[in-house]
Structures are given as structure tokens and as C-alpha cells.
Amino acid sequence: MSQAINWTQVQTRPMLMIPGPTELPWPVVQALNQPAAIQYDRGFDETVLEPTTLALRDVFQTKHEVLIMPGSGRTALEAGALSVIEPGDRVLVVGAGQFGLLMREIMNRVGADFTEFTVELGARLDLDRLAREAERLRPKAITLVHNETSTGATYPAAEVGAIARATGALFMLDTVSSIAGIDVRTDEWGVDLNMTGSQKCLAAPLGLSLVSVSPRAWEAMEQRKVKAHSYAYDLNRWREQWMPVSRGGKVPDGTPRRQPVSIPTHLTEAMRVAVRLILEEGLPQRFRRHAVAASALRAGVAAMGLEMFPDPSIVSNTVSSIKAPKGVDTGAVVQTMRDRYGVLIGTGLAEIRTTTLRIGTMGMTASPHYVLPTLSALELTLRDLGFKADPGAGVAAAQQTFADAS
Ligand SMILES: Cc1ncc(COP(=O)(O)O)c(C=O)c1O
């Protein structure tokens, strides 16, 4: 008998269909290939940092300041939390999965008197109940994960923002897996701290933490009784040392400013290019592209006889969480797809690790170019593992969705 062909022999790396980090556009990769730059050099500020900061406002859909810091999504969440929350402050944390739990843990670390509003995994958020809870607690802040990456569900941030406004709470939104892939309207939704990372739908390398700050959030920092217990990540230091007076900061316009923490020059240059690509594409087209790619993926999955994990009304356009067929080991699916077919997807997390699979459609990968080979690899893998499905059914259904959309 002839030996099984190793299809990945000639591939140097798997295609990244995990829910981040995601594939990088070639101009972004090229932007990293630079000699050392000096982070405090005026040239870096004027040609890279400042234009990137300003362009990010368009991506965040905000008129207010967007801060770039070294770190990741978690750093952004922690910086936001430790800057506005003082020990004993009441915080209402909406928890609908692993990243809601992360926010709870961060609030615990900063000493918040937090109450968790638990949402069953993959289930809709009961807005009336949340409004009543917010009214009862009158918290200083309400936190929400816009797109819960662990369950592939998108939550109604505009409505939660309205509840926060009505109860006088700050609205802290984790947009780590939504920004630049799903519509995020920072100002319109009343988001006071919009906290995210660079490596998902922004399609920039991992390593930057981004936070937009509203005037209400600056006010909350100003009114603290004691300074935040962090030197590098106290956002108020940005206002004091970095932001010009004309933008609500404390640095006289035209005078030298200092970065409160040294900003990674290469990553910022890559982010500059990533943001340029996003704005050249245009946000409406980009969101539509993610919506069509995710719906094609879902059509393919359905044609293979598989079901999505979350409630159908809240399925995400950037992370698809799929129920694995009964008796199929999710770890084996991931490993076989990677080793035999060169496509990397993820399992679920925590209690749904062994029952769900997760596929990202983020940035570049929200396209037929990535979705069709992924479905093909998934079909082949499931067949290898003994699951019966019509060969090509998933790919055909997804192709139909792409064809209908064009
Ligand atoms: C919704 C959400 N929040 C927070 C994080 C943590 O971000 P990071 O891994 O960049 O620290 C992630 C990472 O996957 C995420 O998906």
C-alpha cells in the first residue's frame, strides 16, 4: 500500500484560523523590517506615533484620545481598570464566558467591590434584568465583553452603554475580538474605556495594547482619592505627560512631551500600516466582509451537519464556535487539521474545550481565500476521524454564500 501523503511538507507554517493572533497583511510584515528607531525621537512621534494615534480614532469611531501602549488585550483591560477603579468601588461585571471571568479577576485584583452578572455560556443577555441590577447597585462602572471569544457570541454593547448612562456608571468595553471586524461605535454607545489589543481584527502583530478614553473616564481618574497603584499603566500619566492641552491633556501645545512608558517603535510602525489598510478599505466594507465570511463559514458548517454553539441571534462574525460532532475529540481535530492539512483552528475554552471548536474570521482571514480551504480541511479531518459527511458539501455551501454576496 502506498504511504499517506503529507500535504503540509512544503508549508513552512500553518494558516492561522485561530481567533487571534491572525494572519498579517504583507505590507504590515514589511513594516517590521526596519533598523532600530528611538522611541523618544521627535521624528518617530511626528511620522509614526502621532498619525497612528489620530487614525485609530477613526477605527474606534471616537473623537477622543486613543492611547497606544506596550502589551496586549489584557494590559488594556488592566490599565483601564486600575486607572478608574479604587479599592471598594462598586463594579458590575457582565460575565458570559472566559473573558468576562478575566475582567472579574482583574476587578478583584484592583480591589473593586464587584458583582458578577452571569450570563449562561452562549446565551443572550437579559437587558431588563441587567438594567434592574444596575439600578439596584448604582455601580461606578459596568463592564462588558463585546465579543466573547470563548463562546463566539456578540453582546449588545449599545444597549449596555445606555444602561450605564442611565445609572451614571462608566461603561468599560472589551473589544479585543471585535474592533475592526464588527462595528464598534465608541462615542455613539457611550463607551468610556474601549480596551483592545493589536493582534486580532486590526491584523497587526501582537504586542500593543490600545485604550480610548472618554472625558468622563479622565474625570474619574482626576477625582481619585489615591493614585493608581501602577506606575507604567496609570492612564492618568498619559494625560499629564503626553496629551496636549488642546486635546484635554496637561502638556502645553508645542512643548516636548514624554511617553509614560516606552512605546515599541516597530510595532507602532506596523500598526500605522495596519490602520492605513483598514481605513483604505473603509469600515462599512470591512464589517460587511467579516459578516459575509462568517456567514459563509456557518453555511459550510451547517451543510456538514454541524451546529453552532451560541444562540443563533448572537453568533459572532469574527469567532465561530462550533459544536463538535458527538464522539469526536476536539484536540484530535485541531491536531489533524494542523499536521495533515496545514490549517490551525482552536478548541473551545474551559468547560466547552472538549465539545466545541473555534474558527476565527479576522482581518485578512475573513475571505473566501481562507474560509474555503479551512472548511475543506475540516471536512477532510472529520472524515479521517470517522465522521461521515458528503465530501465537499461544506465548501459548496460556503461558496454559494460568497457567490450570493458578490
Ligand atoms: C475578548 C477577549 N478579551 C481579552 C483577551 C485577552 O487578550 P490578550 O490575549 O491580548 O491579552 C482576549 C484574548 O483572546 C479576548 O479574546
Describe it for me?
By secondary structure, the protein is α/β, with parallel strands linked by helices. It folds into two domains: 15-23 and 283-405, Alpha-Beta Complex (Aspartate Aminotransferase, domain 1); 32-279, 3-Layer(aba) Sandwich (Aspartate Aminotransferase, domain 2). It is 40% helix and 15% strand. The protein is built from 13 helices and 14 strands. β13 (346-347) and β14 form a beta hairpin. The chain is globular. The structure holds pyridoxal-5'-phosphate (PLP).
How many separate helices? 13
CATH superfamily of the largest domain: Type I PLP-dependent aspartate aminotransferase-like (Major domain)
Q: In angstroms, what is the radius of gyration?
A: 22 Å
In this structure, how is the largest beta sheet organized? 7 strands, mixed
Query: What ions, cofactors and ligands are bound?
Result: pyridoxal-5'-phosphate
What is the percentage of strand-forming residues? 5-15%
Which regions are unreliable across 5 or more consecutive residues at pLDDT < 50? none
Helix and strand run: EHHEHEHEHEEEHEEEHHHHEHEEEHH
**How would the global form be characterised?**
globular
Roughly how many Å apart are the termini?
45 Å
Strand order of the largest sheet: 2-10-9-8-5-3-4
**CATH architecture title of the largest domain:** 3-Layer(aba) Sandwich
CATH topology of the largest domain: Aspartate Aminotransferase, domain 2
The domain count comes to 2
CATH class bucket of the largest domain = Alpha Beta
Counting DSSP E segments of at least 2 residues, the number of strands comes to 14
How much helical structure, as a percent, in the residues? 40-55%
**Structural class designation:** alpha/beta
Instruction: Determine the mean pLDDT.
Output: 97
